[in-house]
Design goal:
Strand content: 25-35%
Distance between the termini: 51 Å
CATH superfamily of the largest domain: NAD(P)-binding Rossmann-like Domain
CATH architecture of the largest domain: 3-Layer(aba) Sandwich
Number of domains: 2
Length: 232
């Protein structure tokens, strides 16, 4: 079982810790505020008060034994940077850190942090992309270059097949699923729609009204597909 360490128990850190626990991971969390520790101690493997900006404190808990450390400290850039630096010195195999500014991100990169997250910036970008298009439901970056997106089929594509749309050849995206809304009637006689998900659809699958394509590709390719679908 993989062991994760989370430093900083704001909303971001708590969310990561609890979701890792749901995935069956072993999670130890640290924060300078005992109130934050008390609030989460029953939901994680271990929780302790710790000032992670002190190198000796990290050595004392043998932090090098964990598989991955997440620096989720959001309100103290100096503490975040020092924590990342000392985790690197302790030879933690993988370090993920939150950055609030471009300067913060540059410093973490120079330290050698393996992955740098900017939750607020990324959330703002995803929201802007979704709001700017009538066809985008979700748009999530899964790496620096690749994105997974859910895009509603335009009316002019109803009745066509995946092969006829030819999105993979035209844009280099992979269609990994189709969400369909199936009309149904409840026991009370109410008309409702049930959602059906088709994994890895065949080239002959026919698009129907309100179908949602789940696609994976580069940011540029996804953007081109969205423009193609929205084009009147």
């Amino acid at each position: 079982m993989k062991q994760f360490a989370v430093f900083g128990l704001g909303v971001f850190g708590i969310s990561i810790a609890k979701n890792l626990m749901k995935e069956g991971m072993e999670v130890v969390v640290f924060d300078r505020d005992i109130k934050n520790i008390e609030a989460i101690k029953n939901d994680v493997t271990q929780a302790a008060v710790l000032d992670s900006s002190k190198e000796e404190a990290l050595h004392a808990i043998d932090i090098g034994r964990v598989d991955c450390a997440i620096v989720a400290i959001g309100d103290d850039m100096e503490s975040s940077i020092l924590t990342a630096l000392f985790l690197k010195k302790c030879e933690v195999p993988k370090i993920i850190a939150r950055a609030n500014t471009q300067a913060h991100r540059r410093i973490l990169s120079l330290i050698g942090v393996d992955e740098i997250l900017s939750p607020e910036e990324e959330m703002g970008m995803r929201l802007a992309k979704r709001l700017s298009s009538a066809h985008i439901l979700h748009h999530i970056d899964i790496s620096e270059e690749h994105t997974i997106a859910e895009v509603i089929i335009a009316e002019r594509f109803i009745g066509k097949t995946l092969l006829e749309m030819n999105l993979r050849s035209k844009f280099g995206v992979n269609i990994v699923g189709i969400k369909k809304k199936i009309p149904d009637v409840t026991e009370d006689g109410e008309n409702v729609f049930l959602e059906k998900y088709i994994d890895f659809p065949s080239p002959d699958d026919i698009f129907e009204a309100n179908d949602v394509l789940v696609m994976v590709g580069t940011e540029r390719a996804i953007s081109d597909v969205e423009k193609f679908i929205e084009r009147e």
